[in-house]
Amino acid sequence: MGLVEGKVALITGAGGVIGADTARLLAEEGARLVLTDLPTSRVAEIAAELTGQGHEAIALAGDITDEQTAITLVAGAVEAFGRLDVLDNNAGATYLSGSDGDLLGTTRELWDTSTSINVTAPMMLAKHAVPAMIASGGGSIVNISSAQSLRGDVRNTAYAAGKGALNALTRHIAVQYGPDGIRCNAIAPGLIVGEERLPSFPAPVREMFESNCSVQRLGRPRDISHAVLYLASDLSSYVTGQVLTVDGGITDQLATVGPTRAMALTAISTKG
């Protein structure tokens, strides 16, 4: 028996490195999956891969910033599998290219776009998932936040603010629907790097993170997938309303990170 054997899980952002890895791990542990992302072709490939391995998975299309999509996704899960047990609000948007900078450089358009994906979409999905979970006898909502929501920074203002709001939403859902058998937790990842990014990942950034990280390595998608599995499973039945930081301990060493990070960013900009 897998840790989530027979549970039905809806995963947003399932085409990304973390979402896809989470889908594979939950499938291995017995979950039946509803996957969504844009473009839909990517999650269709992942669903086909999993079904080819004997797992149960379907891909559904939709823009999660549209409330009708939330309604359709939840209804699709119930129609396909008869219930909904887990919602993994994995989809998110950050602007590491520099467009999400400091406060004075934050435009209303950027703020609204970031907030709609990072806060409003998870809220709407949870809103429509809760009744389905209650009908199924309870469930677990896992919101993917960010370690940036736990501290200040010189950029990513809109992103970090949105993830901070997601943390607050997590606690409110946990309090409001705990009596109905629903748990809600968030995961705050640090820097996570997929296998395909490693060869081109900037050396100064890698060195900065590894030297300031307690475990002396970059985070990998499976680090987050394991945390999602824990919170989705009955192993965490007494855990709710929490923000679980999965960052290798770098947040605990912020006093040394600032100057090193500045040097790393300077090195990147110098290299072009």
TrEMBL record:
Domain of life of the native organism: Bacteria
One Pfam family cited in the UniProt record for this chain: adh_short_C2
Gene Ontology terms for molecular function: oxidoreductase activity
Keywords assigned by UniProt, alphabetized: Oxidoreductase
Alphabetized SUPFAM superfamilies for the sequence: NAD(P)-binding Rossmann-fold domains
InterPro entries documented for this protein: NAD(P)-bd_dom_sf (IPR036291), Sc_DH/Rdtase_CS (IPR020904), SDR_DHRS6-like (IPR051122), SDR_fam (IPR002347)
Protein family membership: Belongs to the short-chain dehydrogenases/reductases (SDR) family.
Name used for this protein in its record: NAD(P)-dependent dehydrogenase (Short-subunit alcohol dehydrogenase family)
